[in-house]
Amino acid sequence: MKKLGRREFIQLTTVAAAGCFVGAAPNVQADEPIKLTADDPQAKQLGYVSDSSAVADTARPQKQPNQSCATCSLLQGNVGDEWRPCAIFPGKVVAAKGWCTVWAPKA
User: Domains of the chain: which residue ranges?
Assistant: First the structure.
């Protein structure tokens, strides 16, 4: 059996340690964005709801019947998708039928 030199030992332990970290990585799909919920602190602050028809007129008098995330200029992504990215909530997607107090009309 061959004796390991100091340099070889460090190289082998570094590779073994890196393998432990790579193998322990969670199995997360990058294609699945996080859906924004009304429980999110920023969503609460901005009055986000995933269904704009559930917004009571007395609770949010500024909301008009035709307003939803789908008609907001801040909504991004493909028209027709149920969940899409929003400029206000980076890293998350919002319901196209949702609404928040930052709603802005499309130009």
Answer: 34-107
* Domain 34-107, second-level architecture: Irregular (4.10)
DSSP 3-state assignment of 31? coil
Cβ neighbours of residue 83 closer than 8 Å, sequence gap 6 or more: 33, 35, 93, 94, 95, 96
Say if residue 45's pLDDT is above 80. yes
Query: In the beta sheet, which residues pair with residue 92?
Result: 34
Contact indicator for 84, 69 with CB cutoff of 8 Å: yes
Q: Residues 107, 72: contact at Cβ < 8 Å?
A: no
pLDDT of residue 2: 62
Model-wide pTM > 0.85: no
CA distances from 73 to 22, 59, 86 (A): 41, 23, 9
Alpha-helix residue ranges (DSSP H) falling in the chain: 6-23, 41-45
d(CA 98, CA 83): 9
Which residue reads 């390991």 in tokens? 4
